[in-house]
Each structure stands twice: as C-alpha cells, then as structure tokens.
Amino acid sequence: MKKVFAILMCLFVVLMTASCIKTENNPADETETVTERQTASPDFTVTEPETTTLPETTTEPETETTTVETTTAPPDHSDLYIKGISTEMMVEYFAETVLSAEYSRDTGHKVLVQKWNKPIRYYIHGFNYNSTDVYYITEFFERLNKVDGFPGATRVGLGESYDLEIKFCTRIELQAKTITVDETCAAFTSFNFNTATDEIQSGTILYCHDIPKDQRQSVIQEEILNCMGMSDDTLLREDSVIYQYSNYNTATETDMTIFRILYSDAIKCGMDKRQCANAIKEIYY
C-alpha cells in the first residue's frame, strides 16, 4: 500500500514540474523580466571623429650644380691705345719728349725720367695778364689732375708757399732771365730736380705778356707740359701742342697719352730709355 502511495506522489511531483515549466514559457505571463536594449534617441548625434590635416610638404629633388668655367679673352688693346699709333711709335714719341731736353739734346747729355712726385702748389702773378690767362692755366691743370698717378696741382694766393712759379713778364725781362733764348721766344720753362732721385722739386714758367691772343692757350699748355716732365718739343708730330715749330694747337690725345704714361705706375723717376721702352710695351698695346 505504501509503495502505491509513493508511486502516486512521484507522479504528482512530475506533473507539477511540467506545469511550472509550461507556465514560464507563456508570453502572456511575462511581467517582471525586462530585456534592456540600448537604442539611439532621435535627438542623439553621433560625433564624427576629428581628423587632422597635415600640411603637404614637397621635397624638391636634389639637383647637381655644375660650374662651367668660362675664359674671357684678353682685350685686343689697352685703354691707353690710340688707333693708328703703334707701340713702337709711342715708345719713340715718349723718348723724344720725356728723355730729352730742348737745350741739351745736342750735347749728348743722357736724360732720365724726371717728374713730380709730390702735390704741386702753383702761384700766378706778374705783368699784364688777365682772367682768360688764369682760366687757361687752371683749366689745363684740372685736366692733368684727372690723370692717374699725377700728384695734383693747386693754385695758391699771394703770401702762400708755392713750388711752381708762373709769371707773366716783359720780353726784356724774359731775355734777361734766360740767356739761352732769342728775341722770338714767347715763354720759357725750367725746373730743379733731386739728382739722387730725379724727382722734380720746384719749377718756374715765364710767359711774355704780349703773346698774341690766338697763341696764348697753346703756349700756356706747352710750357706746363714741359715743366711737368715732358721737357722737350717734338719734331715727329706736327699736330702736337709741343711741336718744335708751333702750329699753336691745344693738347692732343697723343700728348695726353704720353703724359698718362709718364705718370703711370710703370714709369719711375730715374728710368732710362731702355727701361721705359720695356715698361711702355707692357701697358700700351
């Protein structure tokens, strides 16, 4: 009897368990189970991740630098060159006017380069000269002052010290002071130089006051060039301001070029004809 009762109790428990399982799976009886699901709200905005734009960098390709050496052809002529006057002719002109002296050319006396190596202070005075004469003198010195190597010349006034006297005088006074000139001479130049260095130390230029008006500029320029170291006249160049039988020209390009050569660094006081010829060939071509 007890076994029957036990069996019946077991069946009852099984039936009750089955009933409970069925009840839990019924959708209508879900009341306390909530499944939490995350959904986006209509007002919710998803922020896009920030992006950083890096500046573009461009790397230039490396290039090889090639240096091309160019050779510049030397000029055909120096800046002293005058068309139509060869180097040999210039050497001859220079020797004739610089390496000689008018009143010693026939004595066989050897003349070396003599020129000024110090600034010149010149004083103008005398008898019956005028503003035109002063202009001719000062204007010509201004031209010479532009020559490289020339130490320069400045006019000074009464009572100031000077190295170069420029005096206008009567013909009688001119002849009395210069016994070597004749009655036709209109001007005369002399200078003193250091016998050890051949540098000109002082000088005197005398002009006859009655030189004709159309000859005055030519005579003034000629004597100034003589006193600067171009101490002799030329027989080779009739157009020159220092032509022996004056045509009363003014200083030509050739005259000024000889002066530029004389005061160039290539020509030194005391140089002889051979040394000067070699130096001129280096700078005049």
Describe this structure in words.
By secondary structure, the protein is α/β, with parallel strands linked by helices. The protein has a domain at 87-283: Collagenase (Catalytic Domain), CATH 3.40.390. 32% of the residues lie in helices and 13% in strands. It has seven helices and six strands. It has helices at residues 2-24, 87-98, 131-145, 171-177, 216-227, 253-262, 273-283; strands at 115-116, 120-126, 153-156, 164-169, 187-193, 199-208. Strands 1, 2, 3, 4, 5 and 6 form a six-stranded mixed beta sheet that branches. Strand 5 (187-193) and strand 6 (199-208) form a beta hairpin. Helix 2 (87-98) crosses helix 7 (273-283) and helix 3 packs across helix 5 (216-227). Residues 10-47 have low confidence and may be disordered.
* Residue runs with pLDDT of under 50 for 5 or more positions: 10-47
Q: Oligomeric state of the chains?
A: single chain
In CATH, the topology of one domain is named Collagenase (Catalytic Domain)
What is the CATH first-level class name of one domain? Alpha Beta
| Extended strand count | 6
CATH architecture of one domain: 3-Layer(aba) Sandwich
* C-alpha geometry: elongated
Structural class: alpha/beta
Q: In what range is the share of β-strand residues? A: 5-15%
Q: In percent, how helical is the residue content?
A: 25-40%
Taking all Cα atoms into account, the compactness measure Rg is 56 Å
Arithmetic mean of pLDDT? 81
Secondary-structure element string: HHEEHEEHEEHHH
Counting DSSP H or I runs of 4 or more residues, the number of helices is: 7
